[in-house]
Amino acid sequence: MKKSLSSFIALCFLVIVLETGRVKATSRDLNDVILLANQQIQQPYRTGYHFQPPSNWMNDPNGPMLYQGVYHFFYQYNPYAATFGDVIIWAHAVSYDLVNWIHLDPAIYPTQEADSKSCWSGSATILPGNIPAMLYTGSDSKSRQVQDLAWPKNLSDPFLREWVKHPKNPLIIPPEGVKDDCFRDPSTAWRGPDGVWRIVVGGDRDNNGMALLYQSTDFVNWKRYDQPLSSAIATGTWECPDFYPVPLNSTNGLDTSVYGGSVRHVMKAGFEGHDWYTIGTYSPDRENFLPQNGLSLTGSTLDLRYDYGQFYASKSFFDDAKNRRVLWAWVPETDAPEDDIEKGWAGLQSFPRALWIDRSGKQLIQWPIEEIEELRQNEVNLQNKNLKPGSVLEIHGITASQADVTISFKLEELKDAEVLDTTSVDPQVLCNERGASSRGAIGPFGLLAMASKDLKEQSAIFFRVFQNQLGRYSVLMCSDLSRSTVRSNIDTTSYGAFVDIDPKSEEISLRNLIDHSIIESFGAGGKTCITSRIYPQFVNNEEAHLFAFNNGTQNVKISKMSAWSMKNAAFVVDQNVKSAA
Question: Can you tell me which family this protein belongs to (predicted)?
Answer without folding.
Answer: Belongs to the glycosyl hydrolase 32 family.
